[in-house]
Amino acid sequence: MSQEYTPQTLEVALQADWAKTGRFAVQPDNAREKFYCLAMFPYPSGKLHMGHVRNYTIADVIARYQRMQGKNVLQPMGWDAFGLPAENAAIANKVAPAAWTRENIDHMRAQLQRLGYAYDWDREIATCDPQYYQWEQWFFTQLFERGLVYKKMATVNWDPVDQTVLANEQVIDGRGWRSGALIERREIPQWFIRITAYAEELLEGLDTLEGWPEAVRIMQRNWIGKSRGVELAFGLESPIADLDRIEVYTTRPDTLFGVTYISLAAEHPITLALAEQNPELTEFVAACKQTSVAEADMAQAEKLGMDTGLRATHPLTGEAIPVWVANYVLMDYGSGAVMAVPAHDERDWEFARKYSLPMKTVICDAEGHPADIADSAYTEHGVLTGSAEFDGCHFEAAFEGIAAQLGAKQMGRTTTQFRLRDWGVSRQRYWGTPIPMLNLEDGRDIPIPADRLPSLLPEDVAMDGVTSPIKADPEWRKFELEGQPCERETDTFDTFVQSSWYYARFTCPHYTDGMIDSAQANYWLPVDQYVGGIEHAILHLLYSRFFHKLMRDAGLVDSDEPFERLLTQGMVLKDGAKMSKSKGNTVDPQALIDRYGADTVRLFSMFAAPPEQSLEWSDSGVEGAHRFIKRLWRLIHDFGSDEGASAAESLTSEQKTLRRKIHETIAKVSDDYGRRQTFNTAVAAIMELCNDLGRHPGETPEDRSVISEGLHAVLQMLWPITPHLSEHLWRQLTGEAFVESHWPALDESALSRDELEIVVQVNGKVRGKILVPASADRTEIEALAKDQENVRRFLADATIRKVIVVPQKLVNIVAQ
RNA sequence: GCCCAGGUGGUGAAAUUGGUAGACACGCUAGCUUCAGGUGCUAGUGCUCGCAAGGGCGUGGAGGUUCAAGUCCUCUCCUGGGCACCA
Prior knowledge:
Layout: H1 7-21, E1 34-39, H2 50-68, E2 72-74, E3 78-79, H3 84-93, H4 97-114, E4 125-126, H5 130-145, E5 149-159, E6 164-166, E7 171-172, E8 175-176, E9 184-193, H6 199-205, H7 214-224, E10 226-240, E11 243-250, E12 261-264, H8 269-276, H9 279-288, H10 295-300, E13 305-313, E14 320-326, E15 337-340, H11 346-354, H12 395-408, E16 412-418, E17 423-424, E18 426-427, E19 437-439, E20 445-447, H13 469-472, H14 474-477, E21 478-481, E22 484-488, E23 492-493, H15 495-499, H16 502-505, H17 518-524, E24 527-533, H18 539-553, E25 563-569, E26 572-574, E27 577-578, H19 589-596, H20 598-607, E28 615-616, H21 619-639, H22 653-676, H23 679-695, H24 701-718, H25 723-734, E29 755-762, E30 765-773, H26 778-787, H27 789-795, E31 800-806, E32 810-815
The chain binds one RNA strand through helix 7, helix 10, strand 17, strand 18 and helix 15.
């Protein structure tokens, strides 16, 4: 009766059954505890890659484990369907982004279904559907009314040949990826959402997110970057560009006496005014603009500067301080000007060295001497020197004293600043949500009225590769409001806007009366478990937290935070590198599913590494996972049906040992799935149990009873990972349908041991092992340890100084 | 450049609270079964000395704390992620 393992037929049949019976469709149910499990939805790029498989398997294992705990589990799936790749594909393949996207969705949906994920497909969302983005447009107009939206000039990468704006990704070594032209920074008007109004709350909220990895919380905290400092001004003798002073911000006012120059951004109004009379400076400013807007590029670019000849007055000493223009000072941050203290700031030190600018030490080192700055800046806090009446002050006193003196002179004040900048949401692209704003003839911007939404994106378009079809089409732009002609905004939203609230829409995807059905949302939210790549640690997760608070303040949801617990999974690598087409090291999950079935692919993904770590791909590892499945298949078939095996009365010591292994495994796997989320160690433990079950003779009814108990537990514990295999074999073994809401019960009494093995060390090195009765006390253990044969040899002519006994574990005898 | 992770056998990894380093699996070696094997089973497998019993060494590198360090501290090297228009 040894039947062959045929995953292709077995899995597809079960999947059809799940779909037909609506097995994973859910509704609110107040009788049961809810559990909302969500994996970050994919961009529909064409087909699934291994990163998706890993991501969705992790989430599915958690969702199914929670189902086995009897919870009402929501696990939805959808598509982050707007974005740049669709435009690129449209140009390359002469197909409209909409058609390309929807084809990809159909293909990827089928792939996900073939992997057997327990999704409620009735809730599927695609962000490119007007039914979705209309509410995003509506919400934006609400934010506008609340004063949380504004328009200002902001910098973009400009390709002067293609006459288009480029994403940072499209700028390679400072050149446009298609034209090869040197790109330049250019300022254009763009829409912003005031995330900075929520900076304090976003920062404080991090402390409540105990279910988040500490690394993510730290990264967000640093990103928000709250600092206490001083805003101060250096005076100008005569106004330039209507400014009579240069404003700077510093967190180190204690180094104010060490300022030897000031640096302005290339876009600073004073720079621009000075450049008008100075051709050399004009040229330098143009050169400064030839880097991408990416911070990484700017931080690594060679530091360039030029003396403007202008001098500003030090607010405390009255000295004349040279004013420079430098390419590392950014107009978008703070005031676009910084005071430079080369002795106590790394970047200023490098710049000053390069241009032979003076340095002035004003902080003492730990020994109380003026710090040595010959080889690098001294950036520690310390006692002041060379700072007039502040000499001898420590950081705190100097900070307060200098701030007070600046305040008295009306030249400065203490402030709190955030590194976080407002969220620019304008994109000069076609394939996105049209920004629902109108430009009136008098120049004012107003929102499109709610009853005229959605502002529909035309889908039947041709892409020429340079101009957005809605920018190229004058007809689309035309709009009439109360008889007045006006123009639609032709920019679209950043795709992060869609992904900032989809988790909430999943609770009520078909709701037509508003953005969110609060009754549904408040039942399901917050998401109990969110799973996604670590690469989203800052942007996506911060924007979502921000949007949640915006929705809360609009009365749509009750909770303060969207995601209770977060699991950030590592990447899938091959040959130590991220899989990518350009490297030619991709692995197509479809080929693996076709060859081994979904359960093998799922099992390997879970077994190969813990979820937070990167996973090194291995073909032979997949083979190994498949072999384990076949072994288990054979084990169950060889065992036959369990013909109502009853709990045995008295067991032999071998049977007791096997039963203890079964229950130790249940305890470990429960902990690994639930608390630790280390699925690889759970699989290893189940494999160990299977090895023991296979080795155990099945001669007596008692033997068969214990083995049967173990096989039941194995199938139940594997269900979250290999659901098809488990359901199929369960029926073989028991003759009944698999009941998913039963997690195997732990029998604590089966865990007890009569004897323990204890390690004996001499001076920290293992010299022997002893078996002691579980009831043995300290003195007995110590005596047994000293008596151990090998231990005695090492103690022969030594004096025992100390004996350390760690209960249940080891004895360390310290001897000389 | 800045912020955050990670580095353990030939390979993927385990070691959960400072307490036996290498569980589980891959690979490899030997044997058995079968002998058409991309099959199955058994044993061995960190390096090293030894016939063996047993010993020495060993978690990127250098120091340190401790009876005891993969785990804690300091410095350092390498790899990966993020840096606001890839998603």
